[in-house]
């Protein structure tokens, strides 16, 4: 859904609204694009807050208690079924609270505990972030490099197309040939990013099948290598056709970013196994905390890329550095992905 939404959103930027009646009505290309997305945003938010009435948490908890007292527990997976969709049977309960824990706390939500009945404190929480298994550290490091590689594309790609592919100059006077070429390149770059979003939507429908057939390691490393090669070829060729073609590899990267790290974290928690040595975690860890740590890599990546990209552009003197840096970071991510503990995925 994110891919399909991105495809339509980037397509809005790819249309030359200056030559349309809507562009005349709103007052130019930029005003037309931002007016349209503002209207879409308001409609979507209105639909979200009016679609149904939210059930208060305490009422939902009371209903769950009543249901458990009147019904038999429902098995997530049939015992005779074995594995479901190629994944382990114990993955059905990712992140679920144990029934015994819920039933032992009839009033309100359960109090998380660690060790021998000790309540979870802020110190335990912070220590679980700083001190984590090596396998999880490698997942976070890989995800950081992945996001850095993707942020290079998502934030600077249209500038690369406008300058390095179309030969434009954003600093040129308005109406000059170089300024017109730059603006045309930016719009064309939006179509490239629309292809990347469409690619993400398509690849997301088959990535689970690829994992079942080839294994998580090959899919993870292969997706990163695909993106790395695509960005390097785009840096070398710098042609409009290459913009549309190799942007599809960015969709593979984007889909991989939102799939593999979370699948691995969930699998670690489901099995209780963390490292290749087979040892279990020394402390009880919360899957919510680990998911949040993995997700936070995107913000660290944006911060680091904002420092790296300026220096790279200054040294090379060309926006082609955008795709070159993206390709290099993706290659580093592919290398660290080979060091991840995949267990039986």
Describe the structure.
- By secondary structure, the chain is an all-alpha fold.
- The chain has two domains: 1-65, no CATH class; 134-337, MFS general substrate transporter like domains (Growth Hormone, Chain: A, Up-down Bundle), CATH 1.20.1250.20.
- It is 68% helix and 1% strand.
- It is built from 15 helices and two strands.
- The chain has helices spanning 2-14, 21-26, 29-50, 57-70, 99-103, 122-130, 134-165, 177-204, 207-214, 216-237, 240-257, 260-271, 287-295, 297-316, 321-337, and strands at 113-114, 118-119.
- The chain has a two-stranded antiparallel sheet with strand order 1-2.
- A hairpin with a 3-residue loop joins strand 1 and strand 2.
- Helix 7 (134-165) packs antiparallel against helix 11 (240-257), helix 7 (134-165) runs parallel beside helix 13 (287-295) and helix 8 crosses helix 11.
- It is globular, with a radius of gyration of 24 Å.
- Mean pLDDT is 84; it is low at 76-107 and 276-282.
């Amino acid at each position: 859904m994110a891919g399909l939404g991105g495809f339509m959103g980037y397509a809005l930027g790819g249309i030359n609204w200056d030559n349309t009646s809507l562009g005349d009505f709103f007052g130019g290309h930029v005003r037309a694009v931002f007016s349209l997305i503002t209207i879409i945003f308001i409609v979507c938010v209105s639909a979200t807050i009016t679609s149904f009435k939210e059930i208060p948490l305490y009422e939902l908890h009371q209903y769950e208690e009543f249901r458990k007292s009147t019904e038999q527990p429902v098995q997530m997976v049939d015992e005779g079924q074995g594995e479901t969709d190629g994944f382990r049977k114990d993955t059905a309960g990712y992140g679920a609270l144990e029934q015994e824990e819920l039933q032992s706390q009839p009033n309100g939500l359960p109090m998380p505990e660690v060790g021998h009945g000790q309540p979870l404190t802020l110190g335990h929480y912070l220590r679980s972030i700083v001190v984590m298994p090596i396998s999880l550290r490698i997942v976070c490091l890989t995800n950081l490099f992945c996001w850095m590689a993707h942020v290079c594309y998502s934030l600077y790609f249209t500038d690369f197309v406008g300058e390095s592919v179309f030969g434009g100059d954003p600093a040129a006077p308005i109406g000059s040939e170089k300024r017109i070429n730059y603006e045309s390149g930016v719009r064309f770059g939006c179509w490239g990013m629309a292809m990347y979003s469409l690619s993400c939507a398509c690849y997301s429908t088959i990535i689970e099948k690829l994992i079942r057939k080839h294994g998580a390691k090959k899919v993870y490393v292969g997706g990163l290598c695909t993106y790395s090669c695509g960005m390097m070829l785009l840096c070398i060729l710098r042609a409009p056709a290459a913009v549309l073609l190799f942007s599809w590899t960015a969709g593979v990267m984007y889909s991989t970013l939102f799939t593999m790290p979370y699948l691995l974290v969930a699998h670690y928690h489901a099995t209780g196994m963390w490292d290749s040595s087979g040892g279990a975690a020394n402390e009880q860890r919360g899957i919510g905390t680990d998911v949040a740590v993995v997700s936070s890599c995107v913000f660290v990546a944006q911060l680091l890329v904002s420092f790296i990209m300026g220096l790279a552009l200054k040294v090379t003197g060309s926006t082609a550095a955008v795709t070159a840096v993206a390709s290099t970071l993706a290659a580093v991510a592919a290398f660290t992905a080979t060091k991840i503990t995949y267990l039986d995925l």
